[in-house]
Amino acid sequence: QVQLVESGGGLVQAGGSLRLSCAASGRTFNSYSMGWFRQAPGKEREFIAAFTRGGGVTVYADSVKGRFTISRDNAKNTMYLQMNILKPKDTAIYFCAAGQQFTSRLPNAYTYWGQGTQVTVPS
Length: 123
Fold this sequence. Notes:
There is one protein chain. By secondary structure, the chain is an all-beta fold. The chain contains no helices and eleven strands. β4 (33-39) and β5 (46-51) form a beta hairpin. The N and C termini lie far apart (39 Å).
């Protein structure tokens, strides 16, 4: 099992930046595919970015490519999401997740989820 805790959300003006963190405990997160998702009010949970299991490859949603960067610190068992040039449409609760598949963009492929952290970009 793995436990996930997100942090780093907040209110930021359009064009600004935030860095989210996802701290993992339990089994080493190299054993899992690790991903970031977000969910805006009234919308389905949306894939943002992920590491393949083992961390060798990253994949991004087209909506964030070039603005968001996923990274990890294996020594700290922590994954990050650097978000730049934030837009009002990025407003959502952001979640990190872990799953045993090699990689996936589908939320139901992930077994473990954090509680989420709110990101708000006013229009």
